[in-house]
Amino acid sequence: MVTYDSELRAHNERLGAAAAIRAGERVLDVGCGAGLTTREAARAAAPGGVLGIDLSAAALGRARQLTAAEGLDNVAYVEGDVQTHPFEPASFDVAISRFGVMFFADPLAAFANVARALRPDGRLVVLVWQRHRDNEWAVAIDDAIGAETFDGAVFSLGDPDSTTRILERAGFADVRFDDVDEPVFYGSDVAEALDWVCGFRDVRDVLSILDPSARDRTLQRLREVMAAHRRDVRGVAFASRAWLVSARRR
């Protein structure tokens, strides 16, 4: 079964390597979702600890279940808004995020709050999508649907210049962007991939307003796109481009 974690398995490895979490460190995982990156950070940081924060109570419930099942006792989760959550100042060595920082209503406030939570010289390491047109998965789905489907927030931090300005104003320095050219995986076969893509909120919203005939035609085009991107034993995969953004707190 495809999951968000399996979709981004190549990106997980890049984030973990770049974060270079060391034993004894305290880690903040922003937009932690079901907690895969949180749990991986916890193993690297032990005996240090990790705090995962997310707005989704359902995702955090799943994260807590998986964390307990894996016997990790150095992890905590909190449901909250990173823009306003009262983190203990200077209490973390590193903040990480896997595609969880593009959706802030006020990114300057959010990153400034993360900076306050980091100790001086603390590290920020996050993954964000590059521009819409550089991501084959988004372009292909939009072409099949016949409209620009995805909320602009998905690609809101894709411009290095504007993102650098936000981070520097928020209290970060030495901002760096490394290109991540890795595929996203949508399932082992066409049917699974189609189900996964139709579960995207933005795709689901578009399909919900179509009349039955138009919806059937759109689903057929999406099915054909999934079939065209089936890659032997790897299943259905699309090219993607992300930035691995790193910085340090001033």
In short:
This protein is an alpha/beta fold. 42% of the residues lie in helices and 26% in strands.
What does this structure look like?
This protein is of the alpha/beta class and 250 residues long. The chain has one domain (4-249): Rossmann fold (3-Layer(aba) Sandwich). It has ten helices and eight strands. Strands 1, 2, 3, 4, 5, 6, 7 and 8 form an eight-stranded mixed β-sheet that branches. Helix 5 (107-117) crosses helix 7, helix 6 (136-145) runs antiparallel to helix 10 (212-228) and helix 8 crosses helix 10. The radius of gyration is 19 Å and the shape is globular. The chain starts with a helix and ends with a strand.
Topology:
Layout: H1 4-7, H2 9-19, E1 27-30, H3 36-45, E2 50-54, H4 57-69, E3 75-79, E4 92-98, H5 107-117, E5 118-129, H6 136-145, H7 160-170, E6 172-187, H8 190-198, H9 201-208, H10 212-228, E7 230-231, E8 235-249
Parallel strand pairs: 1-2, 1-4, 2-3, 4-5
Antiparallel strand pairs: 5-8, 6-8, 7-8
Helix pairs in contact: 5-7, 6-10, 8-10
- Overall CATH architecture: 3-Layer(aba) Sandwich
Mean pLDDT score:
96
Oligomeric category: single chain
Q: Largest beta sheet, briefly?
A: 8 strands, mixed
Low-confidence stretches: none
H/E element sequence? HHEHEHEEHEHHEHHHEE
Total beta-strand segments: 8
Q: Termini separation (Å)?
A: 43 Å
Please compute the radius of gyration using only Cα atoms: 19 Å
Overall geometry: globular
Query: Which CATH class is shown?
Result: Alpha Beta
